[in-house]
Amino acid sequence: MQCPVCGSDTASTSSRCTRCNAPLSDATVRDDATVQDDATVQDDVTVQDDVTKRDEATKGDDAGPSHGGGGDVVTALSPEPWNASSAEDEQVTRLSPEPWAQPGGPWEQPRIWQPPPPRRRSRTTSWMTVAVTAWVTVVTVLVIVFWPDREDPAPGSPTAVAPNSSAESAPADEEGTEEESAEEEGDDSAEQQAKEIDSLLNDMALTRRELIGAVVEGCARGALQRIRDTRRQQLNRAENLQVDALSDGEELKRALTDALRRSLESNDEYLNYAPGCPSDSAVADVNDRATEAKEELLRIWNPIATEYGLITRDSSQI
Question: Structure pTM?
Answer without folding.
Answer: 0.44
